[in-house]
Write a structure and sequence with these properties.
The complex is a heterodimer.
Chain A lengths: L10 E14 L2 E13 L3 E5 L6 H8 L10 E6 L2 E4 H6 L3 H11 E4 L11 H12 L5 H11 L14 H13 L5 E5 L7 H18 L2 E6 L2 H5 L4 E9 L4 E8 L3
Parallel strand pairs in A: 2-10, 3-8, 3-9, 6-7, 7-8
Antiparallel strand pairs in A: 1-2, 1-4, 4-5, 9-10
Chain B lengths: L2 H5 L3 H12 L1 H38 L5 E4 L5 E2 H7 L5 E7 L6 E6 L5 E9 L4 H4 L10 E4 L1 H7 L6 E10 L2 E14 L9 E5 H11 L19 E2 L1 E6 L5 H6 L8 E5 L1 H8 L8 E6 L5 E2 H10 L6 E5 L3 E5 L2 E7 L4 H6 L16 H4 L1 E4 L9 E6 L7 E9 L5 E3 L1 H9 L5 E4 L4 E4 L3 E2 L1 E6 L5 H10 L4 E3 L1 H43 L1 H9 L4 H37 L15 H27 L4 H5 L2
Parallel strand pairs in B: 5-9, 6-8, 17-21, 18-20
Antiparallel strand pairs in B: 1-25, 1-26, 2-24, 3-25, 4-5, 4-7, 6-9, 7-8, 10-14, 11-13, 11-15, 12-13, 16-17, 16-19, 19-20, 22-23
Helix pairs in contact in B: 2-3, 2-17, 3-15, 3-17, 15-18, 17-18
Chain lengths: 251, 612
């Protein structure tokens, strides 16, 4: 675990006593999160085997899935504490969307790039949606660092898996979000590329002070970089119910 | 909308357009598919509009199709023209004269060649003149048809000598006038040899042909003097009539009532007392006026009975300034006046056709002061005001003012027929009773039928090109139905294609849309995504359809150009129709996109994460 973060710990997101149930084909899955918190600048890994609930947790963190029960669910914006539980309860979807576009960056398994936009336009998209500005020069600099500068005018279908992921990382960072949620960003690339991608990701994120939550089933990939690692304890309660409890691995 | 949303305005539109551009082959296919629906509809509408417009144009351009003509001679009163002209669907209405009176002989000044032409009245707004290259003639100006001008060999600016002939008392007479040609009409105005002049000239020609003088044109002849009419006759006799004589007065005299008149009643009518040795009888017609012929018949019947025949007009009043003067008409010979104990009258006995010099006299009763020698007087009872001068000649022997009975009998006629006082001729004249026909043009061909119906309801025999107009209307209705049938099927097909395509596109782009939602676009923002795409495709489609329509209409019009006149098109749509088609297409596209738009709002941003 890397403990060399140059950012002082400050609360960014906290969840307590959260429960989410999902049902598919008559089989229920229950995710319980007793405590979950993110500090500014942290590199947080969510590690677990398939079906343990790491993607469900990521959906909840990404504000696209509503928890069924929750004692606390806060995000700290500047000096304000935003009660996400209340926003969900009041179905304030526009407010949640606004938080998503302003505070979150996303890196999906295969990049999640829009196929009809060029790499450059994809990178710019969160900036445009947020309505903030960013210089071309800085984008090019970042693209050079990520090794995708010469791909800026290309469409995503002409990129390799690794290139797409690097572009996706760039896109997730350019609008300077507080949190970047990365869902198995290295799933579609080979092991060597995966290490390079994660290292680049970690380095860039640390430079801009962004908290990174990375979901992966590969503990080795993040073991050296993660400030905090959350994992799951899965219990099969019955034939139709599986329960998973999320906890901090070091705890 | 938050400030950030305002800043990001245009993002969804850009994304929608980039997506369309990215899938340009699919977009092109859909645009062409929609254009393939719209273009034939536009072309069909253009053909329908152009065909009907051309046919209508031919009717509308030619005023003949807007003309409604009387087919029978009938006397149309002035009031009829005044009333009918108030309809707002009438472009032009003028009286015409009897066809037989409208023939005139025309020759060029200083030339011997003469032709006989038909004289037609015209006036301001006459579409036959104005829409056939002519200008409305004024005063002594005229307009000729092409045939007439060619026949006599004249051009605009030439002067014509017009000869009007008549036969009066077995004697051939003629009058001449000079007319300046201000226009020669297009051949379309008619193949007949006609001269169009202002109505007053045409009426003067008719009056002259009827034997009248037209002083303003120095055309000699008679005057339409009003006949004399009376309310009754008082026969004054030295003794009572026996029953046979009394009954005889009812035979062939025009009177059907003969009754002995009490002295008091006599005085009330005449304003003076009947000498006691005389008796009087009141002769009148209970149902009709008493005419001068009755007066003469009664006079003949009572010949040898020392009768004094006093035709009278009852309860007459003249107005002068604010005064009303009761007047009695009396024209008797000095001998009869002496018998009645009255002093001599300046105008003497009754004459059938007296001059105004004789009848324009007045004797005032003693109770009215003599004001002036000549007073302007109007006769109560006549419609409007009829003003004429009267010379005051002295004191009346009656309690009423006395005037010649011919004056009152003339004015009495004015209660039945319009009479005028002609200052130039210093005489009363019968005003024109009516006109033999009319020239009427509807404002549009659509107005012909209602006017035609209105005239028919007045039992007038008329003709109009209603059948030709109706044929166009039937064709228009038929083509409209066909157009709508095709258009509705086409529009439904277009809507179905658009709905299906947009819905399928949303299904196909579910992942992309969920990523957009994940990146922070709200439901409302992604709702606009397919709508923008539909609107963009609608604009492209209508643009393509209009281009195709213009190309095809150009070809069609070129093919039919030999059958069309200058400026006419068999396939044509006004700009307003194209604007409406554009708005309609955009609206239909918007409505068609709503289902797809609703579908986008159902996309869960979590799907972006899961579909990975």
């Amino acid at each position: 675990m890397n403990k060399q973060s140059k950012f002082s710990p400050a609360p960014l997101l906290s969840i307590s006593k959260m429960l989410k149930q999902r049902e598919q084909g008559g089989i229920s899955f229950e995710l319980e999160v007793p405590n979950f918190s993110l500090q500014r600048g942290q590199f947080v890994a969510i590690v677990g085997a398939s079906g343990c609930g790491k993607s469900t947790l990521l959906d909840i963190l990404a504000l696209v899935l509503r928890p069924d029960q929750c004692q606390e669910f806060y995000i700290y914006v500047a000096d304000n504490k935003v009660n996400l539980k209340r926003l969900w309860n009041q179905k304030e979807e526009s407010r949640l969307a606004e938080i998503r576009r302003n505070l979150f960056g996303y890196v999906l398994q295969t990049g999640g790039l829009l196929p009809f936009l060029t790499v450059k336009k994809n990178i710019y998209l969160p900036i445009r949606i947020k309505g903030s500005g960013y210089s071309d020069e800085k984008i090019v600099q970042l693209a050079q660092r990520m090794g995708v500068a010469e791909l800026l005018s290309k469409k995503p279908q002409f990129l390799s898996g690794g290139q797409r992921q690097r572009v996706a990382i760039l896109r997730a960072m350019t609008h300077q979000p507080e949190i970047i949620l990365a869902d198995e960003p290295t799933a579609a690339v080979d092991k060597e590329n995966a290490h390079i991608i994660v290292q680049n990701f970690h380095k860039l994120a640390k430079e801009i002070g962004t908290t990174i939550v990375m979901v992966t089933h590969n503990h080795d990939l993040v073991a050296e970089l993660a400030d905090t690692t959350f994992t799951f304890k899965v219990t099969r309660e019955s034939k139709t119910l599986t329960r998973s409890v999320c906890f901090e691995a070091t705890a | 909308m938050t400030s950030q949303q305002q800043k990001s305005r245009g993002t969804v539109l850009n994304l929608a357009l980039f997506d369309l551009f990215h899938e340009w082959i699919l977009t092109l296919c859909l645009v062409l598919a929609i254009a393939a629906v719209i273009a034939p509809i536009l072309l069909l509408l253009g053909l329908k509009y152009g065909t009907i417009a051309t046919l209508r144009d031919r009717l509308v351009q030619d005023p003949v199709y807007r003309e409604i003509r009387p087919t029978q001679t009938y006397e149309y009163k002035k009031q009829w023209f005044t009333d009918f002209a108030e309809r707002n669907d009438i472009a032009f209405l003028t009286p015409t004269i009897l066809p037989a009176a409208s023939i005139i002989t025309v020759k060029i000044l200083n030339s011997q060649k003469t032709e006989i032409f038909d004289l037609i009245p015209t006036g301001m707004g006459d579409p036959l003149i104005l829409e056939n290259g002519g200008q409305i003639p004024k005063g002594n100006q005229c307009v000729m048809t092409k045939m007439a001008a060619e026949e006599i060999g004249v051009a605009v600016g030439d002067n014509l000598s017009v000869r009007v002939t008549r036969n009066r008392g077995g004697r051939q007479e003629f009058a001449t006038a000079e007319l300046e040609i201000v226009s020669i009409l297009n051949p379309r105005a008619g193949i007949l040899e006609r001269i169009y002049t202002p109505l007053n000239f045409v009426v003067d020609v008719e009056n002259y042909k009827e034997g009248m003088a037209i002083p303003t044109r120095n055309w000699t002849g008679g005057s339409p003097r009003p006949y004399l009419s009376f309310d009754g006759i008082i026969a004054v006799l030295p003794q009572k009539l026996d029953l046979i004589a009394k009954g005889n007065l009812r035979i062939n005299t025009g009177v059907n009532e003969v009754e002995l008149l009490a002295n008091q009643a006599f005085a009330q009518i005449t304003g003076f007392n009947l000498p006691t040795h005389l008796v009087s009888y009141h002769l009148h017609n209970a149902n009709n006026i008493v005419q001068a012929s009755s007066y003469r018949a009664v006079k003949r019947k009572l010949r040898g009975k020392k009768a004094i025949i006093i035709p009278y007009v009852k309860a007459s009043t003249f107005r002068q300034s604010k005064k009303e003067i009761s007047v009695f008409g009396l024209s008797l010979s000095p001998k009869h006046l002496q018998t009645l104990g009255l002093s001599e009258l300046p105008w003497g006995a009754l004459k059938n056709k007296p001059s105004y010099q004789k009848i324009g006299q007045l004797l005032l009763p003693n109770n009215i002061e003599k004001l002036e020698t000549v007073i302007e007087t109007s006769f109560a009872g006549i419609k409007g005001t009829l003003t004429f001068p009267l010379r005051i000649q002295g004191k009346s022997p009656s309690q009423y003012a006395l005037v010649p009975i011919e004056l009152l009998a003339t004015l009495r006629t004015g209660l039945q027929r319009e009479i005028i006082f002609d200052d130039n001729q210093q005489t009363f004249l019968l005003a024109r009773g009516g006109y033999g026909g009319f020239r009427l043009y509807a404002k549009t061909i659509d107005d012909v039928q209602p006017i035609y119906t209105a005239l028919k309801q007045q039992n007038l025999e008329i003709s109009a090109k209603v059948d030709a107009i109706e044929r166009i209307r039937i064709l228009d209705r038929g083509l409209t139905r066909i157009f709508w049938l095709v258009a509705i099927v086409g529009i439904i097909g277009g809507i179905a294609a658009l709905i299906a395509s947009l819905y399928a596109a949303v299904e196909r782009k579910k992942r992309d849309l969920s990523i957009m939602r994940l990146l922070g676009l709200s439901r409302y923002q992604v709702f606009r995504f397919p709508i923008y795409q539909a609107l963009a495709m609608a604009i492209l489609s209508i643009g393509a359809a209009i281009s195709a329509y213009f190309t095809l209409s150009l070809v069609i019009n070129l093919v039919f150009s030999n059958d069309l006149e200058m400026g006419q098109k068999i396939c044509y749509l006004p700009a307003s129709h194209l604007v409406i088609a554009t708005l309609l297409t955009v609206s239909v596209a918007f409505i068609s996109a709503l289902l797809a738009a609703w579908k986008t709002t159902q996309i869960d941003p979590a799907e972006a994460l899961r579909e990975e």
